[in-house]
Amino acid sequence: MNLTNNEYRGRFAPSPSGQLHFGSLVAAISSYLQAKSQQGQWLLRIEDVDQTREVAGSASHILSTLDKLGFEWDGSIIYQSQQTARYAEYLQTLIDKDLIYACDCSRSKLKQNSSAAAIYPGNCRLKKHPLTSPHALRCRVSTESLFIKDQIQPAFSVNLQDDCGDFIIKRRDQFFAYQLAVVVDDHEQCITDIIRGADLLSSTPQQIYLQKQLGFSQPSYGHIPVAMHQTGLKLSKSHQDLALGHYNPLAVMQQALVFLNQSPPAELAHVSLSEFWQWAINNWHLSDIPRLAEKAFTLDIPFTDTL
What we know:
three-stranded antiparallel β-sheet, three-stranded parallel β-sheet
């Protein structure tokens, strides 16, 4: 696909592991408003590569909810479960570059190594296991340092080997891992800008490394604060009481703008959907989003069954 130099292409990529919740809505709204305020395109992708986590019917429910909330996406919706042949092609590229090795380390085995909590210690780097099941496949990283410049969070530098370690590309159960799938999808969809939750900030170095190894262009990244429950837990699909179907749609979207520090007027919760989006696009300021990686938030909205 040929893009003009100034064309903006953003995306929202929920996983179908439950209904759309407030944390997902914040990510959807922020990516949508940034794209539309730049007169750009906003694409949808269902990240169902890990089918063990998929909840039946949740993908269609998410899409239906977005439609009822007035989101308008460009182009066809991509489903990761339908892209595995493309992932396999790019995996072979990495194999040809001698960046992939098989790993038979179990979680229990890794727990025996105190350094393995966050960084793989490289146990299988030199073992020469065959690149077939039942082994997982890891990508070998270099010792280079990457400088990560974010549109929202402070810039930081990481040493790939010391701070990230070799990471899984294809799992033992033969599902492709998130890191490869998302990098390939963003490339294939010509995504130029990614606005997503700060809980994915730690994945950015691995994704940039893969982009470099595969010869892909690097999108710009912006990581919004993660919405936290007052108890200190991340708002997620596991909190069924926070599914958006329980809330007045305009009120909850107005509260999402409050969370993003966009200073919406209270009456925005009582206008039409078109008026809401017109105000939100015209008054969107990415620079106003707080840098907090985590931000406690409580929805104070009456329950309704309007969605």
